[in-house]
């Protein structure tokens, strides 16, 4: 059964290729969902897929892109809704 994780990522995560890093990481792991910047400087991620892949994904989110400095990744787990068919960046 697929799971869903919603994350708020804080730190230096905007203007450092973090959304692109997130999308590439998700696609490699077979995860679907979306990532977008928030007005408060954080990044919001919704991801759905196998629980083991999502756990790996969270580790990558905590590491971040080469230029990013991640302070915190708060994650909320639930059952997948099936609303996504790919992983997209929202601009």
Can you walk through the features of this model?
This protein has 91 residues and is of the alpha+beta class. It has one domain: Alpha-Beta Plaits (2-Layer Sandwich), CATH 3.30.70. It is 27% helix and 42% strand. The chain has two helices and five strands. It has a five-stranded mixed beta sheet with strand order 4-1-3-2-5, covered by helices on one side. The longest helix is centred in the middle third of the chain and has 13 residues, at 51-63. The radius of gyration is 12 Å and the shape is globular. The relative contact order is 0.36. The mean pLDDT is 97.
CATH topology category name: Alpha-Beta Plaits
Order of helices and strands: EHEEHEE
- As a percent range, the share of strand residues is 35-45%
CATH class: Alpha Beta
Shape summary: globular
- By helix and strand content, what is the structural category? alpha+beta
Mean pLDDT reading: 97
Low-confidence stretches: none
Q: Please give the count of helices.
A: 2
> In order across it, which strands form the biggest sheet?
4-1-3-2-5
**What would you report as the Rg, rounded to the nearest angstrom?**
12 Å
CATH architecture: 2-Layer Sandwich
Largest sheet report: 5 strands, mixed
Tell me the span between the first and last alpha carbons.
30 Å
Number of E-state strands = 5
Helix content: 25-40%
Instruction: State the domain count.
Output: 1
How would you concisely characterize the structure shown here?
With 91 residues, the chain is α+β, with helices and mostly antiparallel strands. It is built from two helices and five strands.
């Amino acid at each position: 059964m697929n799971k869903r994780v919603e994350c708020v990522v804080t730190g230096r995560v905007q203007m450092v290729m973090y959304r692109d890093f997130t999308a590439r990481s998700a696609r490699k792991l077979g995860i679907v969902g979306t990532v977008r910047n928030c007005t408060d400087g954080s990044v919001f991620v919704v991801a759905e897929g196998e629980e083991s892949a999502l756990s790996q994904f969270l580790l990558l989110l905590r590491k971040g892109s080469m230029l990013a400095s991640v302070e915190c990744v708060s994650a909320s787990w639930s059952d997948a809704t099936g609303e996504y068919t790919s992983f997209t960046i929202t601009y």
